[in-house]
Amino acid sequence: MLQLSHPNIVQCKGVALLPDKSPLPVLLMERLKTSLHAYLLCPNNSNLPVKRKVSFLLDIAKGLDYLHSRTPAIIHRDLTATNVLLTSQLTAKITDFGNSRFLDLDPRTTSRTFTTVHGTLEYMPPELQGVTAQGVSKKFYPSLDVFSFGHLSLFTVTQTQVTLLPPTSTDPETGQ
Predict the structure, then answer these.
(1) Domain architecture of the chain: domains with CATH
(2) Which residue ranges traverse the bilayer (predicted)?
(3) Which are the catalytic amino acids?
(4) DSSP 124
């Protein structure tokens, strides 16, 4: 986190150990008070201009491009409107890298396979929503974040929480 430096990624300022509080280290991050989710759902912002919404999405896309262009690439794996924070100038910054993973995109090497999926179910591609329950191994690529970005774009443009239905294996006619 300390090595990431991009205007659309929340900056990690350092690490601290808090004796008497927790045995785990604490990340000291850039302070941003408002999430994109809270901002978009605020009644005062119900008529945001399209230009502002596009600006948010461009900021997020630039941050994702930075993460995916690194060597090794970083896959966020939990890109949601709550994991995008806004500066006082309304610049969008990606945060919460707790589920992120490195991925070597060199085709000569073996890609990383994960046996469990972490993140927000509603923002996951349908083919990954049942991975944990089915115990199936899947390879994760930047396309996982791209799908989440598409869902995030829909939420940003409509300013309405969108629920994508997971795929079903039942016959709609018989219900079996």
Answers:
(1) 33-158 (1.10.510.10)
(2) none
(3) 78
(4) S
Question: Could you tell me what percentage of the chain is helix, strand and coil, using 3-state DSSP and rounding each to the nearest 5?
Answer: 35, 15, 50
Q: Residue 71: name the closest of 23, 109, 119, 113 by CA.
A: 109
Q: And the tokens for 113?
A: 């396979």
Q: Is 8 exposed, middle or buried, given 0-12, 13-18 or 19+ CB atoms closer than 10 A? A: buried
For 123, the token pair is 């923002």
Q: Residue 77 gets which letter from DSSP?
A: S
Rounded (10°) CA dihedral 115, 119, 120, 126: -30
Instruction: Output the tens digit of pLDDT for each of the chain's 176 residues.
Output: 778 899 999 998 888 888 777 778 888 889 998 999 999 999 999 999 999 999 999 999 999 999 999 988 898 888 999 999 999 999 999 998 777 778 765 555 544 555 455 566 666 666 666 555 444 455 667 778 888 999 999 999 999 987 765 555 554 455 55
In which element (H, E) is residue 65 found? helix 50-69
